[in-house]
Amino acid sequence: MIGDWGPQDRSGLTPVPGGATAADGFRAGGVASGVKASGRPDLALVVADVPAGAAAVTTTNLVKAPACHLTDRHVANGRAQAIVINAGNANVCTPEGEAHAQRLADATAEQLGLLSQDVLVMSTGVIGVPLPVQRIEAALPALAAGLTRDGGDAAAHAMLTTDTRTKQVAYRVSDEQGSCVVGGMAKGVGMIEPAMATLLVVVTTDAPLSGPVGRQLLRAAVSRTFNRISVDGDGSTSDTVALLASGAAARPPGLDTLARGVAAVCADLAHAVVSDGEGATRVAAVTVRQAATEADAETLARAVATSLLVRAALHGADPNWGRILMAMGNARVDFDPRRVSVRCGGITVCRFGVAATFDRGQAAVAMQQPEVSIEVDLGSGDAAATVLTCDLTPEYVRFNAEYTT
Amino acid sequence: MIGDWGPQDRSGLTPVPGGATAADGFRAGGVASGVKASGRPDLALVVADVPAGAAAVTTTNLVKAPACHLTDRHVANGRAQAIVINAGNANVCTPEGEAHAQRLADATAEQLGLLSQDVLVMSTGVIGVPLPVQRIEAALPALAAGLTRDGGDAAAHAMLTTDTRTKQVAYRVSDEQGSCVVGGMAKGVGMIEPAMATLLVVVTTDAPLSGPVGRQLLRAAVSRTFNRISVDGDGSTSDTVALLASGAAARPPGLDTLARGVAAVCADLAHAVVSDGEGATRVAAVTVRQAATEADAETLARAVATSLLVRAALHGADPNWGRILMAMGNARVDFDPRRVSVRCGGITVCRFGVAATFDRGQAAVAMQQPEVSIEVDLGSGDAAATVLTCDLTPEYVRFNAEYTT
Q: What are the catalytic residues (chains A, B) (predicted)?
């Protein structure tokens, strides 16, 4: 992994194939329901063999999708057995949104013989257009009948929107106590005509986890991974990260080991999302160290990672430390600029607030890599945080400016 | 003026030529000192005939230019007589920054026969590179000797960096009590290799104003004009707005009238700055109305105006209300999305949180204008605020990504 991104200790973690169905006790699948005009797959289902420990984190956007509200309600008891995901229409800002989200859950439950309460819903795509819910209802029987133990890949395809590739990862996670598998899939931050970025993530494990403990693990992982990436600087109305734990693993590892597994899966998926950012050609890990608190470090790293000028400089492979200092100076966090040092691609470009002497050719080469670390030392403490971002490119603007109505 | 931007009541205001030297009691000029490698003018001076009432607002960026610190100190007594402005080097993040800012003030004072304390300093340009202060000192005698009553234009040219044109405005401001002139000049939000956006503004008037009253007028005007524009979303280390009042007007208007004059000058200059944003092809006035408080309205309008997705949609002339709602939903201001209506270019595109029926061809024409209003009604109060922004273009990214080191 790039720079300080994700858990540094990956001992006991071995990559395995299978994505969201890598862990025992899950089946999945994906089909084309006709919601996407292109006819591409747009309906995914992930189902546990038994009621699973469940947790979810949904968007903090005030304009919140009915699917997110429904998922919040259904996951509140710490239990769920299925996640239905539709792409192509976010079911947001429409008069019938709540009724349609409920119909998705009801229809899924009916096909699977579950309680509606045990179904979580994710929707992504165009907003402000009524969801053609009948098409989804019509497609669900075949999808439910065709679920397989290796259907993670089909599900990962069916949740995509403007993503250029699927995002899947899984690890076998072992320690002296035992082992389990943690896997997952994501759809990235892609704009949908005429709407918005949405992050959807499913994490599965065969470790046994109660809902409350699962929520702890998931929140801890999300706070340092999906909450520390930036492509647009905008959070969507529909962002959802959900975890299902089937309990099929006979001898699971300790909770700390499991937590590292969940964190690694979230870090890898978050990295994949940023790498596939629209128009992005380069990923940067912005790490702020020697801060008074982790919150300070995160605020400053986020200010750098979301600065248009820094992201444009990143596109130009320009180690522009002036823009980095300026972005931090706007963040309303107290620090002493005269103590700040900055490294770009491992090369010190600013030392104690003034220009360092460095080889510009060497810096250009370091900044031209597909993955670049930007490291800032504040000299005022020992807390650190890393935020992942991508370069701002003319292609991004062109893509998001296309006349869509 | 576009939409609700600037003071709506412009009665008694008549445009006049002359910019920063339109008001009586001022002389100005501009020369090339050689700080800019291009040999273009880069040193400007505005001087009052007598010690003037003075006020200034400088950047809130924690990484603050030595020139800003000096200007803060020198203006604290409410009096100043000259403003020296150099372009091409911001004198920021260099070991000798404070000494060099002082030398600029001292050398200017010496040439003009003033106290150093009565000189304000503004610097803009590259950061992290020592200011070639000797070149400025060498150029000052000729500049001071060549000051003229119509030198506002020369000064406005000499303060530019990547701006494509000068920004100058002046009004004769009259009421039953009397009249005066308020004028000014600005340099816009342009990135300097390898540095940052900087906004520099000089406002002059021949009305008599004490420093404290001048500060009140200036702060009130700045809070609704220069503090409500967005090009990069980043504030610079060097932003400065300064006001000098010569007192040469024999029969000035009332204070409220004068305040409207200052507000109009600031609004016009701020509009000129946004219009000349790098790569910008279109300006939008984002007005949020029916908010509980003006602070809420401003926060929401700013969230819309700084959203990359909204600004990219603006470039594509796309009335993308979904992105507008999403940007507001992230702003941590409480509102009810089901009460929100949105007009783009005067056309209602969202009514009470859901899609409105509108003519897409008509909307496209309305959005393709060089100036577009985006109006949001919240339905939760009667406060309003307008923030000015420009479209995000591939040219902006290209310009700011150029390899500069």
A: 198
Give the neighbor-by-neighbor strand order of the sheet with B371-377.
Answer: B229-230, B383-390, B283-291, B371-377, B341-344, B347-351, B354-355
Put simply, the answer to whether B233 touches A308 (Cβ < 8 Å) is yes
DSSP A193: T
Q: Which residues of chain A make contact with B129, given a CB cutoff of 8 A? A: 355
What residues in A contact B318, CB-CB < 8 Å? 194, 401-405
Local structure of A351: helix, strand or coil: strand
Same domain for B256 and B335, yes or no, is no
Task: Assess whether B265 and B325 both reside in one domain.
Answer: no
Distance CA B103, CA B89 (A): 15
> Does B60 show up as a binding residue in the annotation?
no
Q: Give whole-number Cα distances, A213 to A170, A208, A224, A272, A362, in Å.
A: 20, 10, 17, 26, 48
Most confident of A124-133, A224-233, B137-146: B137-146
Which ipTM was obtained for this model?
0.86
Examine the residue annotation and report whether B21 is marked as an active-site residue of this protein: no
Q: Is A306 known to sit in a ligand binding site?
A: no
B312/A397 Cβ within 8 A: yes
Q: What is the pLDDT of residues A130-153, one digit of tens each?
A: 999 999 999 999 999 999 999 999
- Looking at the fold, whether B269 and B296 belong to one and the same domain comes out as no
Contact B84, B104 (CB under 8 A): yes
* Cβ atoms of residues B54 and B214 within 8 Å: yes
Nearest-CB residue to B401 (from A64, A195, A312): A312
B99 touches chain A (CB under 8 A): no
Residue of A nearest to B398 (CA): A394
Residues of A in contact with B353 (CB under 8 A): 93
- CATH number of the structural domain spanning residue A395: 3.10.20.340
**What are the pLDDT digits (tens) for B200-248?**
999 999 999 999 999 999 999 999 999 998 876 667 889 999 999 999 9
* DSSP characters over B249-301: -SS---HHHHHHHHHHHHHHHHHHHHHTSTT---EEEEEEEEESSHHHHHHHH
Q: Which of B235, B308, B318 sits opposite A234 (nearest CB)?
A: B308
Percent helix / strand / coil, chain B, rounded to 5: 35, 30, 40
Asked whether residue A261 falls in the same domain as residue A361, the answer is no
B335 touches chain A (CB under 8 A): yes
Among A58, A162, A198, A299, the one annotated catalytic = A198
- Per-residue exposure over A343-371, b if at least 16 CB sit within 10 Å of its own CB, e if not: bbbebbbbbebbbeebeeeebbebbeeeb
